[in-house]
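Why do we care about 3D structure at all? Because function follows from shape, and shape follows, mostly, from sequence. That is the central idea of this module. The next example makes it concrete: a single protein chain, its amino acid sequence, and then its structure expressed as C-alpha cells.
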Amino acid sequence: MALGTYTWPVNITVPAGTSASAPFMVTPLIGSIMVASVEVRIPRGHNGLTGLSINDSGTQILPYSNTTEWITGSDERLQFDLGQETDTGLQLVGYNLDVFAHTFYVRIIGQYMVVSNPADLADEQIVPIS
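And the structure:
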C-alpha cells in the first residue's frame, strides 16, 4: 500500500533580537519520513536581518554547507529538492536581528518511511497533495 506524498506546514516565528549565536529553534513532530523537498517563503520585510537553517538531529542540511550558513532574503519563495531520510530529528533554526518578530513559512514535502499503526497519524498535521 502506497502512503502517498504529504505536505507538513511548519512555520517558525523568530523573536526580535535573536542572535545567530543563540538561535531560536522549532522541532516539528513529523516522525520518520523521506523528505522529498522543502519550500520556504520569506515575506517582505526580512531584509537580510533574519536567517533560517534546517537541521536533522543537529546537522545542518539546508543550506548544505560544512560551516554554519543561513537562508536569507526578503519577499522570496525558495524550493530545495532534498531526498533525505529523517527520523524525528528535523529542526528549523532561525535568527532575527530586527526589532520586530519575523516568520518563515516552511512546507516539508515527503512520504512516511514506516507506519506501524495508521491511527498514530491522526494527530499529525497532514495535507495530502493532489
